[in-house]
Amino acid sequence: MEIMEIRDAVERLRADSGTSMIFGEPHQTSDGSTIITVSRLHRQWRGDPIPVPVGVFSIHEGEPSWSPAVDHTRVALMGEFIGLAAAVIATLAVLRRPPWPDVTIRKG
């Protein structure tokens, strides 16, 4: 696949996807691979939308491959929230009905 064919394909993808996806310019590496970055627009509460990385297309010897971008901070934060929710639910369950037996002292 030639550089001009890649640029034509990227331009078609840009036209088809509207404004939500952003395809970067193709970059040629020293080993002959072509790299194309892909981002999407993230709408903020205030201000302009910002681009967020989605992944990278790489073409090496005519074989395309996709490498998604992974935000490890977001994955770790989700794990912490799930752990916190589990701890809160377990605490509420123990406070509502403790696991120890009822001990009552009756006079009479």
Mean pLDDT over all positions: 82
Helix fraction, binned, reads 25-40%
**Unreliable stretches:** none
Helix/sheet category: alpha+beta
User: Count of helical segments?
Assistant: 2
Q: Can you characterise this structure?
A:
The chain has 108 residues and is an alpha+beta fold. Helices cover 37% and strands 29% of the residues. The chain is built from two helices and five strands; from the N terminus they run αβββββα. Strands 1, 2, 3, 4 and 5 form a five-stranded antiparallel β-sheet that branches. It is elongated, with a radius of gyration of 27 Å. It starts with a helix and ends in a 12-residue tail after the last helix. The model has no long low-confidence stretch (mean pLDDT 82).
